[in-house]
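User: Just a sanity check before I run the rest of the batch. Below are the structure tokens for the first item. I only need the designed sequence back.
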């Protein structure tokens, strides 16, 4: 039987860090993001010696690296297409169908990145409280339902946001819509998708753990979350500026809408590039 957990830390109902005693008197520390992204568990000996990292098995580490690379590249490419669509709208032809086509391709990659991020959580190594302090690899799954886990909830909300964006992007191909229909079929899903991205980012901050409010310049995971959340904020600014006024039939501010999308998309691409380096 494993030793009882010494301390559980987190926020609200979520546990993001566990510390428990090992039979030799040392302690093992599991942190949610580090474990699921890099397959690492920190073990501190009873003596004053340095801590060491226990790695998950080779199969699990290979799985994590591949899923991480696919998700990261999907966000890099998706962000690039969204930035290109905004650039065409702002500096190019401004053709609505051309922009919609570019955005739609970007949305496909965003959806892929969202789902693969969820797969990474579902198939991440799990902690074992007791024994020698180790991580175990579950069997491969394409889906799970674990809303009490902050990492699962964050990536599930992110994936849901990409699906809502898909509705917005598909509806943008429709022709002859009234102002009311544009706001209902295109603008409303856009705002909902942006809100889901912001919620996902907030949950990702929670997953960082008790030190999330302290800037750690060498913490790559924290930088990724910050850049992603900045992108979500810019997407929301863009969405709000893209509301079509019923009285005039014009956007609240087309320039802000385009620039918000452009800069927000570049943030997601940058976060994807940074994520390529976040592996075991």
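Assistant: Here's the designed sequence for the first item:
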């Amino acid at each position: 039987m494993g030793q009882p957990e010494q301390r559980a830390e987190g926020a609200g109902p979520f546990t993001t860090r566990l510390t428990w005693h090992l039979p030799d008197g040392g302690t093992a520390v599991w942190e949610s993001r580090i474990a699921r992204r890099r397959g690492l568990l920190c073990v501190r000996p009873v003596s004053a010696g340095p801590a060491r990292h226990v790695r998950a098995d080779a199969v699990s580490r290979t799985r994590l690296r591949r899923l991480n690379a696919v998700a990261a590249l999907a966000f890099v490419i998706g962000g690039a297409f969204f930035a290109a669509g905004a650039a065409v709208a702002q500096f190019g032809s401004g053709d609505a169908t051309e922009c919609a086509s570019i955005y739609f391709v970007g949305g496909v990659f965003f959806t892929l990145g969202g789902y693969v991020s969820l797969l990474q959580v579902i198939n991440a190594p799990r902690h074992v409280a007791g024994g020698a302090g180790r991580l175990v690899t579950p069997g491969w799954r394409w889906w799970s339902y674990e809303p009490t886990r902050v990492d699962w909830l964050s990536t599930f909300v992110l994936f849901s946001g990409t699906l809502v964006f898909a509705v917005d992007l598909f509806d943008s191909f429709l022709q002859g819509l009234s102002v009311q229909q544009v706001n209902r079929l295109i603008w409303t899903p856009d705002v909902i998708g942006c809100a889901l991205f912001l919620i996902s980012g907030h949950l990702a901050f929670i997953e960082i753990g008790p030190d999330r409010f302290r800037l750690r310049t060498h913490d790559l995971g924290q930088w990724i979350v910050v850049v992603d959340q900045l992108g979500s904020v810019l997407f929301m600014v863009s969405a709000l500026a893209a509301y079509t006024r019923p009285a005039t039939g014009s956007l609240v501010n087309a320039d802000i809408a385009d620039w918000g999308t452009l800069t927000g998309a570049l943030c997601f691409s940058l976060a994807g590039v940074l994520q390529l380096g976040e592996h075991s």
